[in-house]
Write a structure and sequence with these properties.
146 residues, alpha+beta, Immunoglobulin-like, five-stranded mixed beta sheet, three-stranded antiparallel beta sheet, elongated
C-alpha cells in the first residue's frame, strides 16, 4: 500500500513538473502598438493620407519569439471603383528586414498611388514571430485628395 501511495505521489509530481515546464516554454504573441498612422509630410496620427503622397507608419513591435515577417495590408472599405482605367489601390507588403529582432520601431512610408480613389480604407498590420505566433493591429484610414 505504501508503495502505491509513493508511486502515485511520484507520478503526480512528475506530471505537475512537466505541465509547468510546458507553460514556461510558451512564447507570448508579439505586441503591436500603433503610435502614428497618417500623412507622410506631417508625420501625423490623423489616419489620413493624400492621393499621390505617402502614408507614414510609426509602430512599435515587441516579439519575445523574434520577428519573422511583418505584413501591411491596406484595402478599400465600402464602394470604390476603378479610376481612369486603373484597378482599386490596395497594398499587401511583406517586410523581412526586421527578421530576428525582438523589439523594433517600424518606421516606414508607403506611396499612395495617384490613381487611388478617395475614401475609407482598412489598415492591417500583422506580425508573425519565428515561433509561428501571430498578432495583428487594425485601423481605419482615409485617403483624401490633395
Amino acid at each position: 500500500m505504501k508503495n502505491r501511495i509513493l508511486l502515485f505521489v511520484v507520478i503526480l509530481g512528475a506530471v505537475m513538473i512537466l505541465t509547468s515546464c510546458n507553460k514556461e516554454n510558451e512564447v507570448a504573441k508579439p505586441v503591436i502598438t500603433i503610435h502614428e498612422l497618417g500623412d507622410g509630410d506631417s508625420h501625423g496620427n490623423d489616419h489620413t493620407a493624400k492621393i499621390g503622397g505617402e502614408l507614414h507608419m510609426d509602430i512599435d513591435v515587441v516579439a519575445e519569439g523574434k520577428i519573422d515577417v511583418i505584413q501591411v495590408i491596406i484595402h478599400p472599405e465600402g464602394e470604390h471603383h476603378e479610376k481612369d482605367g486603373h484597378d482599386e489601390w490596395e497594398v499587401d507588403s511583406i517586410y523581412t528586414k526586421f527578421s530576428g529582432l525582438k523589439n523594433t520601431t517600424f518606421h516606414e512610408h508607403i506611396e499612395v498611388a495617384a490613381t487611388a480613389e478617395p475614401g475609407d480604407y482598412h489598415f492591417d498590420f500583422i506580425v508573425t514571430d519565428m515561433e509561428g505566433n501571430q498578432s495583428s493591429a487594425e485601423a481605419e484610414l482615409e485617403i483624401i485628395e490633395e
